[in-house]
Amino acid sequence: MLRYLIVDILLPLLVFALLRSFFRGMFRSKREVSRPAQQAQPPSQPNVVVGGELKKDPVCGTYVSIGASVTRTVDGQLLHFCSKECRDKYRAA
Ligand SMILES: [Zn+2]
Predict the structure, then answer these.
(1) Domain range for residue 23?
(2) What separation in Å is there between the alpha carbon of 59 and the centre of ligand 1?
(3) 48 lies in a domain?
(4) Average pLDDT of the chain?
């Protein structure tokens, strides 16, 4: 009688609990995998460098920080460009 009780009631409960914890663990691990990937992308724009002095791009008028700018010396004056394209445009002008 006790054996039937174990097989009919406790065993299904045990299997159900194991399956439930298994699926819960699977969903949790999926969530943990996807979460760091979302955090890896910074919320701010990648082109904007925090801090540093801003210089105006003479070609397109964009303000770029000195650390992130493309520089070129013209007549002894150091110019800052937002991109190589702007630097080349300035050279061509
Ligand atoms: Zn530019």
Answers:
(1) 1-41
(2) 6
(3) no
(4) 79
